[in-house]
Amino acid sequence: MREMGVLVGSYEPHQPKAGGGAECFQWEEALELLEGRSADLFGR
User: Fold this and answer.
1) What is the pLDDT of residues 4-44, one digit of tens each?
2) First to last CA, the chain
3) Using an 8 Å Cβ cutoff, are 21 and 14 in contact?
4) Residue 8: per-residue pLDDT
5) Which top-level group of life is the source organism from (predicted)?
6) What pTM, to 2 d.p., does this model score?
7) What whole-number distance in Å separates Cα of residue 4 and Cα of residue 19?
């Protein structure tokens, strides 16, 4: 999706392992990026 210009955060994907990284994902950053992208698309 990055090649398509879709940004959902700076968290780098990795192979799953015990404990995972879901608690490290920056949800606020993803929402801000999506909010800005929708504003660009819809002229807000």
Assistant:
1) 776 666 766 667 676 666 667 777 887 888 887 655 656 65
2) 23
3) yes
4) 67
5) Bacteria
6) 0.37
7) 30
Six token digits for residue 3: 């090649």
**Rounded to 10 degrees, what is the CA torsion of 14, 34, 26, 1?**
0
If DSSP states are collapsed to H, E and C, what string results for 1-44? CHHHCCCCCCCCCCCCCCCCCHHHCCHHHHHHHHHHHHHHHHCC
- Nearest 5 degrees, angle CA 34-CA 2-CA 19? 80
Cα distances from 35 to residues 19, 38, 44, in angstroms, run 29, 5, 10
In whole angstroms, how large is the CA radius of gyration of the chain? 13
Amino acid at 32: E
